[in-house]
């Protein structure tokens, strides 16, 4: 099983190799940038993720953008084609989604503030063993680490916390329909011991690259819900780089900064 140190070393070697190769935008293919300014705008419009078939237990989830236009090839390049250097812009987009979902919690909005602010733990959705072996890395852990660093720079006490593991026998959900995803994932996640100190009072935010049916996030939230939490602890939240858009959204380009509205707020 790869460790965080192994993942970091692999990411470093891949990023070093990328530095000596010609760079093209992973979204549109233009030379000169990892992800050009135009393509980055597609990941600067946070919105609530709303799967067409809303699964039971689906946590409040915000995506930095829609899984459409140049976002799709950029995520696939990072996830499946070894462009590890994209952890930077995609991780920054994930951090934006985390801030947006935290803003829906009761109380002051997140941002630079007092040191006693509630800590935030980013819990990456674990990839299957087969997927990690095929890709040579756990790409969601990479995103979580970058996003946590971005949040700390902004003044939020955040860190990546791999609290979830997968039981053996779980397939990669890619290519499965919503019903098959739920069946594949039912009871497949397990909680791991926390590293780096207690987390009982922290806000738990599940993070992933893309949400489509919502089955993965729902199962992850159900598993984390079994952890001992103090009375009044905030709910488990989720943030992703991109969400599969509803058909009505199509492939529309971003129109401007997004506004997150949660009807009635998010209760505790």
Q: State the major sheet.
A: 6 strands, mixed
Q: Cα-atom Rg, whole angstroms?
A: 18 Å
Number of domains: 1
User: What is the overall pLDDT average?
Assistant: 81
**Low-pLDDT segments:** 111-116, 257-268
Keywords:
268 residues; alpha/beta; two-stranded antiparallel sheet; 8 helices; 32% helix; disordered C terminus
Describe this structure in words.
By secondary structure, the protein is an alpha/beta fold. The N and C termini lie far apart (36 Å). Strands 1-2-8-7-3-4 form a 6-stranded mixed β-sheet, sandwiched between helices. The C terminus is likely disordered. It has one domain. 32% of the residues lie in helices and 14% in strands. Helix 8 links the parallel strand 7 and strand 8. Helix 4 packs across helix 6. The protein contains 8 helices and 8 strands; from the N terminus they run ααββααβααββαββαβ. It is globular, with a radius of gyration of 18 Å.
Break the fold down into its secondary structure elements and pairings:
Elements: H1 4-19, H2 37-40, E1 47-48, E2 61-66, H3 71-80, H4 87-102, E3 120-124, H5 129-135, H6 139-153, E4 158-160, E5 164-166, H7 178-185, E6 189-191, E7 203-211, H8 215-224, E8 237-243
Parallel strand pairs: 2-8, 3-4, 3-7, 7-8
Antiparallel strand pairs: 1-2, 5-6
Helix pairs in contact: 4-6
């Amino acid at each position: 099983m790869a460790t965080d140190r192994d993942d970091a070393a692999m990411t470093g070697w891949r990023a070093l190799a990328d530095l000596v190769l010609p760079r093209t935008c992973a979204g549109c293919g233009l030379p000169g940038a990892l992800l050009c300014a135009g393509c980055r705008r597609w990941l600067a419009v946070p919105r609530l993720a709303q799967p067409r078939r809303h699964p039971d237990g689906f946590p409040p989830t915000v995506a930095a953008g829609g899984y459409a236009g140049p976002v799709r090839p950029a995520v696939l390049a990072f996830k499946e084609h070894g462009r590890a250097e994209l952890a930077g812009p995609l991780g920054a987009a994930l951090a934006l989604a985390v801030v947006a979902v935290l803003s829906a919690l009761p109380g002051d909005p997140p941002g630079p503030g007092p040191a006693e602010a509630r800590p935030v733990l980013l819990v990456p959705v674990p990839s299957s063993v087969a997927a990690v072996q095929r890709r040579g890395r756990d790409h969601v852990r990479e995103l979580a680490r970058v996003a946590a660093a971005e949040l700390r720079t902004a003044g939020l006490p955040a860190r990546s916390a791999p609290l979830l593991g997968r039981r053996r026998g779980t397939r990669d959900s890619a290519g499965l329909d919503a019903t098959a995803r739920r069946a594949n994932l039912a009871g497949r996640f397990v909680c791991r011991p926390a590293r780096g100190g207690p987390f009982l009072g922290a806000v738990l935010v599940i993070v992933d690259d893309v949400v489509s049916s919502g089955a993965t996030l729902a199962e992850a939230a159900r598993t984390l819900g079994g952890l001992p939490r103090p009375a009044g602890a905030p709910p488990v939240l989720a943030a992703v780089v991109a969400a599969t858009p509803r058909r009505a959204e199509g492939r529309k380009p971003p129109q401007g900064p997004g506004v997150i509205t949660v009807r009635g707020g998010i209760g505790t």
